[in-house]
Design a protein that fits this description.
With about 230 residues, the protein is of the alpha+beta class. Helix content is about 20%, strand content about 20%. It is built from four helices and eight strands. The longest helix has 21 residues.
């Protein structure tokens, strides 16, 4: 009798097992791989191999050099130049950027945040364009404060904004945050790099608000894709 009860119990359990399995929760789908939204550094650099010079002459990369080697080049939808990177640490005071860390520190930037405060060089990736001169006027190339730029160095792309203006005879400068994100020493006293940086700034572009780096990335990726497709 006990055998019969045991056999009946096993049979009932066996009959119910497929139904139980059928109602189990499905496995979670695999997480898709992350896909870059914008062009690669190589794709962008391939469009800057030749220069249609629009600057009236060339710029120096530093105050203490005598030779002028950097031209501003025109392209469809953008202008670009290839230079060094000096570190701009102006604007809001921070642990990284102040009178003690930077001998040339200034507590203001040419362009301001949406709340009226200067930009924060330690946090916001931005580039510096030369002040207008007989060599080149950035506004004549449809560039302005808050404009979108791609900065390329050592296989990396950083999307930044036009955040400050510098000396009228020198080119090649970006904020502490830009350098740090690109793997360049961001120290304003001994950082930067002597060469290998390409700056591509997109005409008639604006990142709003200027201090929103997420917006700078999305805007930059879109404009960079158009730049690659149209050049």
């Amino acid at each position: 009798m006990r055998k019969l009860i045991l056999l009946a119990t096993l049979a009932l359990a066996s009959a119910m097992m497929p139904a139980t399995l059928a109602t189990a929760a499905p496995a979670a789908p695999a997480t898709p791989a992350t896909v870059e939204a914008g062009p690669t550094a190589a794709q962008l650099l391939a469009k800057t191999n030749s220069c249609r010079q629009i600057s009236n002459g060339k710029y120096k990369t530093d105050e203490d050099v005598s030779s002028k080697t950097v031209a501003v080049c025109d392209a469809n939808g953008a202008v670009f130049w290839k230079a060094d990177m000096d570190i701009d640490c102006d604007g809001q005071r921070s642990t990284q950027c102040n009178e003690d860390t930077d001998c040339c520190y200034q507590d203001d930037t040419a362009f301001h945040q949406s709340d009226g405060k200067p930009l924060n060089a330690a946090k916001l990736p931005y580039i510096v364009v030369p002040s207008s001169s007989s060599i080149w006027k950035y506004t004549s190339s449809q560039l302005k404060g808050g404009g979108s730029c791609a900065v390329i160095y050592n296989g990396k792309v950083e999307y930044a904004v036009i955040g400050d203006t510098g000396p009228s005879q020198i080119i090649g400068e970006a904020s502490y945050a830009t350098a740090k994100d690109l793997g360049i020493n961001p120290d304003p006293s001994n950082g930067g790099t002597d060469s290998g940086v390409t700056y591509i700034c997109f005409k008639n572009s604006t990142v709003s608000p200027i201090e929103n780096h997420s917006n700078a990335i999305s805007k930059g990726e879109s404009l960079a894709t158009t730049f690659v497709n149209n050049n």
